[in-house]
Structure formats: structure tokens, C-alpha cells
Amino acid sequence: MRTYFISFFILLLTFNLTFAQNKAKDTIVENLEEVVISAQITPRSEKNSIYKVKVIHASTIEKRVANNLRELLQQELNIDLSQNSVFGSSLEIQGISKENIKILIDGTPVIGRLNGVIDLSQINLQNIERIELIEGPVSVFYGTDAMGGVINLITKKNQNNTIEGDVSLYYESINATNINASIGYKFGNNTIRLNGGNYKFNGYSSNNAAPRNLNWEEKNQYFASLLFNKKFKNLQLRYASNFSNEKLQSIGEPDRTGSIQDKNYYTRRIDNSINLRGEAFKNKFIEATISYLDYQRYHNTYDIDPISFVTTDADSDNKNENLVKYSYAGFKTQLGKSKFDDKLNYAIGTDIKTESTKGERILDNKQNIQTYALFSSLNYHLLKNIEIQPAVRYTFNGSYGSLVSPAFNSKIRINNNNNVRFSYARGYRAPSLKELFLDFHIATGPFTYIISGNENLEVEKSHSFNLQYTFNKLIKNSNSIQIEPALFYNNISNLIALSELVDFKRHYINIDQFKSIGLKVDFSYINTKRMSFKTGISLIGRYNKLTESFSTDKFLYAPEITSNLNYKISNTGIYLNLFYKYTGKRSGFYIEDGTDNLVKTTRNDFNNLDLSISKSFLKNSLKTSLGFKNIFDIEDIETTNQIGEAHSRDLQLWGRTVFFKTSYSF
């Protein structure tokens, strides 16, 4: 009950600050007419998009002082995060997670999933202009692995001056530092941008008396990117190359015999893409992307003498035995015709990709899959204020043959202030390379554990429904309010998951069914002279049939509350930024190893409150931020998140910290 009172108090405080009278002259503006590009026939304003696209601006990233995608999404509504010390951080949207959430950078997928997830802490935000987030299925435009939603990071591409650049320094009292720099040169219709950075975190343990029991592993990340952008008449040609490398040091604890082993995990990504987009022909919009992505991960193992702590290379489980390489080559093109006043608009496109993986932990050391897809979408105005958009994607998968994914979107514009959106999608997801061909053996003491793929897996199938109402109202003095209630329902059959442990073996299986159902309400108030305030509440119910013989008998519900306040203190140039999220108690189940017992687990509820104070100097060239993260000092929480797993720590937060950031742009 105490946490509910804390939540209520914070909401009351932010409401009071929101409506406090002030005569500040500076402005806080959010552009409701901003153009979005994710899942659109052609670029459209967010207000006119048939999909509901949530935009997180660079200004919000700046105010949250977020170093990576994990830190940015921590306080977003309907998004649940979890952390594993080896696999990294992952997310869940509308109760759906892992392979069914697609993460993109400029429309190109981020590859390299571990245990089905992309480590969000490896996605740097240094060069990001905005992030477009769509909840619910977008499988027609982005493929069958976008049933749960899409997060598309849009990078900075253009500049006004001949030379522009910036340098930023970040320090957090958890022994974390982040250094980034970028420079751009514009000549004629061409722009070249270079970016680079380093994030270093020395690890953390909530039990300082046990130095070899880190809750959060030490890591060191390097990032670099090159962008070349050329403008023609109505077209833009872009070449982008991105590099990232991470070293994660996992410190082992003594086993029953006193032996100690440490492991260093290395993850490297090299991504290259060429993109052409803009107007071609009359009233047509074309976008074409060629991409090649290369990913590799391995670890080295070290024996530690328990007395002298001298380190020596272990005899087994090193790079030559566990190196896994993954590559992706893709070609995607889309031609669309979209004129807002026309009765009929359309988009047609093709999406071709080949994925391959190789390594000692892959069956026969090398496997690959080719996928060919055609997609089409029609936007038709039934009446002046009613539009419908049926769409279909035909996919041929090299292992599973033909798959057809239909979708239907509609939008009713009641008047200038009221809109209703409804969407339905039928999804199919073929198993990934790892789910089909993993061949992983690990020796622990006298036992050898085996985790293997399953070439007999069936395709996941889903039905998804989303209904959303939007009310926008401009009020006096250029202020505005927005209220958005929404409902959703997802039903996935043949969900792919790991089986329970039997005779030291686990393998991927299809379980019967997963469902999620929920509602949320978002409210925002923007005063262009001094502040913006947003709050929201959601309730998500989850249902799992865990194995062929076990299932939960009802939906298990978990609530969330978020509240964000950005406030300009009169005549000082100082901004106060509050970010708060209450995550409610969440229950789950797992099958106890070696038994037929269905065990219920619970993750306790918790509050997360961040505060930052920022100010600009030298005509906004120099910006500084100072603040606190996780003011309530929440640390790891015992929970169960994985189907078929026993107790594991859910590393939500690493305790209260103080941070400082300064940046200079020129």
C-alpha cells in the first residue's frame, strides 16, 4: 500500500507544478505536425498517420540524460525491461517480447540476438535525431518478426552550417563515464558526418563485502560511425557505416571445490547500408535500401587461483570453441503514392534478405536462411473523414515455404480534435536460425548440459487487435492538451520457447498459446511558454500455456503509471525535468526442474524517479545537466521472467546515483 501512496504523492506534486502560474518568457514547443516515416506509405505528419506513432525527440533524450536505449525506455508506458548479466537488457511491448519486437536504425534491423533479445544497452544514442515507436503489429511493412511492435531510431543526417560538431562528457557516481564527439562537413549538396564515443562502466555489487559477486558486470563499449548524405533535386542518397565493440567482464564465484573462473565476453558489430529516398516520377515516393550487417560474439575463460588470484587461460571454453558469427544481407524497396486529398493511395514493395550463422555451437558449424517477400498496402478514403488501409505481405521462407500476412488499419477523423484508430493483423513468424540449429554443450562439474535447436518447430501464428482514441485540444495562450485511451489484445499460438530441463537437456519447443490484453490512458498538457507535462496509466494481463500439459488458468495483471514533467524556472534559463514510473507487482509461473510442479513467482512492485536540472550557456552552445537517477534507491529484484526457468534476478536498477553531463556544440 505504501508504494501506491508514493505514486499518488508524486502525481499530485507534478500536477501542482504543472498548473502553477508563472510569467516565464521562454518557450517549450512540441511539434504536433512532425513528419514520421515508420510504416508509412510516404512520410506523413504524425497527426495524419493511420498508424499511431509515438515520437521520442532528441530533446527528450537530452533531458533524460540517457546513454543508451535501455536507459531511455526505462520509464516508458507499456514497456517492461529486464536485465541478464550475460545476455544484457531486453524489452517487452504490450506483453510481447524477444523475437517479436523489431529494433531498427533508419529502417535497417539491428542483429545479434542472444536468448532471443537484443541487448538495449549496446545501442548508443549519440547520433539519434528521434525515435519512432509503434506498439502492436507492423508485420506487413517490416516482416513477420514485428508482431509486437517496432522501434525505429532515426539518425541525424542534415546540417545548416558548413562545419558543425559537438563534444559531450558524462559521469555517473556508479563509476560510469561516457565520452562522445561528432563533426560534420557540408559542401554543396553533400554532407559528411563522423561520430565516435566510449562508454565505460566498472561494475557494481549491492553487497560491497563480496567483490566477486557483482550484480552488474563491468563493461567497456566503443562506438564509431560514418555518414555521407547527398541531395539531388528531390532525392537523397545516404551511405552509413556503423561500428561497435563491447567487452563485458564476468567475475566468477568459487564453486563447491573452491575453483574460480572468470569470463570476458566480446561483442562486435559492423553495419553498412546505402539508402535512396525521395520523390521519383510524379507524386510518387521511392525508398530503397541495400544493407550488409556483420555480428560476432565470443568469450574467453580464465582460471583464477583462489589464494593468489593469479589468472591463467583455461584449457577449454575459449574463443575458438564458442565464437558465433552472424551476417545479414538485405535489399528492400518501396514505391508509394500518397496525396492526402486523393481518394486512393498505395504502396508496393519487396523485401529480400539472407541470414547466415556459423560457429562451433551451430549444427554442422554453418546454417543459412533466405527470405523473399512482396508487400502491398492500399489507403482508401471511404468518406472525407474515414480512411481504411488493407495490406498484405507474401513471404517465402527457405525453410518454411509460403506465408501470407494480412492486416487492416482504419482511421475515423470525427473532427479536428477527435480521431479513432483501429488495426488488426494476422502474423506468422518462422523460427530463427538459433531456434532451429543451436547445438550448445556446456560442462559444469561432472555434468554436461545441452541446449539444442529443433528443426521440427512450427511457425508462430498470431492475431492482434488495437483500438485507440485521440483527443487533441488547443486552449488559450497556445496551450494544448491531449488524451489518448487505448485497448489491445494479442493471441499467439505455437509460441517458441525453451523446454524444461530433462536429463540435463533443453531444446526449443512450441507451446500452445500466449495471450496479452490491456488498456492504457495517456494524458499530456503543453504550455508553450514554460512547461510540458505527461502522465499515463496502463494495465496489462498476460496468459501463458507453459507446456503441452500445464497452463495458467487466468490472465495475470500488472499495472504501470508514468509521469514526466519539464518545467522552465522563470527568467533563469534553468529547466527542471522529472521522470517517474511505478511498475506494479507482476506474477508468473515456471515448471520446477525434474518435477511436475507448476510454481508461481512474483516480482515486487517498485518506483523509479529521476530528476535532472539543466541550463544552457553561450547562446545554447554549452549545455550542462546535473541530477539524480533512481532517487528511491531500487536495486535488483528476485523474479522469474523466462518460461521454464527457475528463480533469477531481474536487474531493473542499480541503486541511487548522481550524474553530471556537459556538452559543447559548434
* Helix count, DSSP H or I runs of 4 or more residues: 6
What proportion strand?
over 45%
Instruction: Tell me the domain tally.
Output: 1
CATH architecture: Beta Barrel
The CATH topology annotation reads as: Maltoporin, Chain A
What does the radius of gyration come to? Answer: 25 Å
Which stretches are low in confidence, meaning pLDDT under 50 for 5 or more residues running?
A: 1-27, 641-648
Rough outline: globular
Structural class: mainly beta
- In total, the number of strands is 39
Quaternary organisation of the protein chains:
single chain
Can you tell me the CATH superfamily? TonB-dependent receptor, beta-barrel domain
Q: Which percent range fits the helix content?
A: under 10%
Q: Cα distance, first to last residue?
A: 50 Å
CATH C-level class is: Mainly Beta
Main β-sheet: number of strands, strand sense, barrel status? Answer: 22 strands, antiparallel, barrel
Mean of residue pLDDT? 86
Give a quick set of tags describing it:
59% strand, Maltoporin, Chain A, 666 residues, disordered N terminus, 22-stranded antiparallel β-barrel, mainly beta
Protein architecture, described:
The chain is mainly β. It has one domain: Maltoporin, Chain A (Beta Barrel). It is built from 6 helices and 39 strands. It is globular and about 75 Å long.
Summarize this structure briefly.
The chain is mainly beta and 666 residues long.
Task: Reconstruct the topology from this structure.
Elements: H1 2-18, E1 35-36, E2 44-45, E3 54-57, H2 58-64, H3 69-73, E4 79-84, E5 88-93, E6 96-97, E7 101-105, E8 108-109, E9 128-135, H4 139-142, E10 149-155, E11 163-172, E12 176-187, E13 190-201, E14 218-231, E15 235-250, E16 260-279, E17 285-304, E18 311-313, H5 319-322, E19 324-337, E20 344-359, E21 366-383, E22 386-397, E23 401-415, E24 418-429, H6 433-437, E25 439-444, E26 447-452, E27 460-475, E28 479-498, E29 505-527, E30 531-545, E31 556-569, E32 574-583, E33 586-591, E34 598-603, E35 606-617, E36 622-629, E37 637-639, E38 648-650, E39 657-665
Parallel strand pairs: 7-10, 26-29
Antiparallel strand pairs: 1-2, 3-9, 4-5, 5-6, 7-8, 9-10, 11-12, 11-39, 12-13, 13-14, 14-15, 15-16, 16-17, 17-18, 17-19, 19-20, 20-21, 21-22, 22-23, 23-24, 24-27, 25-26, 27-28, 28-29, 29-30, 30-31, 31-32, 32-35, 33-34, 35-36, 36-39, 37-38
